Amino acid sequence: MPRLPHTSPQTLHVFEALLAAPDAWRYGYDLSRETGLASGSLYPILMRLAEGSLLETRWEPAEQPGRPPRHLYRLTQDGAALARQRLAARAAAASAPRLRPRTAS
User: Fold this and answer.
1) pTM of the model
2) Is 20 helix (H, G, I), strand (E, B) or coil?
3) What is the C-alpha separation between 69 and 58, in angstroms, rounded?
4) Which residue among 20, 43, 73, 97 is least enclosed by CB atoms within 10 Å?
């Protein structure tokens, strides 16, 4: 059975971080620090979420001359709904009783 999209542990960490303030614009660097994800893991997740219209993105001009602009992210309504759904499914799976394997008698 194939895995549902957007259910990797790393994506769920990103969802948790973004849902902490779902209407707030967040910098990728701050999300990386909060989730513990390296940029090589975080930014592909952010790009997939944005391509799926689950995440809004925008550029913020640099505060100081000579500095590059910064990319900001926040969940769309659909993204927030999916994030809540995926996190609830993870919580339900974690609390579900586990079947123990049969032992030979």
Assistant:
1) 0.84
2) coil
3) 10
4) 97
